[in-house]
Specification:
Bound molecules: zinc ion
Number of strands: 3
Order of helices and strands: EEHEH
Low-confidence stretches: none
Structural class: alpha+beta
Number of helices: 2
Radius of gyration: 12 Å
Helix content: 10-25%
Mean pLDDT: 93
């Protein structure tokens, strides 16, 4: 089951479970569409895998299988805003 992380790992933008802007890789590294496309060219900077749109979990299912609330952020090569952090 997907964790459905609550934010972009790069810019820390909120990505709620119903967001169509969430992108994930096979390890569920999670990014917004802007970072995924503009900074990383659709490739996960952590593992080199594809970033694809995260499927939206139906609201009724979130009651029994809620989304993660643990925010994950890290600096990535190729990310201009956080490169110096
Ligand atoms: Zn982002
Ligand atoms: Zn990854």
């Amino acid at each position: 089951m997907l964790e459905l992380r609550p934010n972009c790992e790069c810019c820390d933008r909120d990505l709620p479970p119903d967001s169509e802007l969430a992108r994930i890789c096979t390890y569920e590294c999670t990014f917004c569409a802007g970072c995924a496309d503009d900074h990383f060219g659709g490739i996960c900077p952590n593992c080199g895998g594809e970033l694809v749109r995260r499927p939206i979990r139906p609201a009724a299912k979130l009651l029994t299988h809620p989304a993660s609330t643990e925010r994950v952020t890290k600096p990535h090569p190729g990310c201009p805003e956080r490169a110096a952090v």
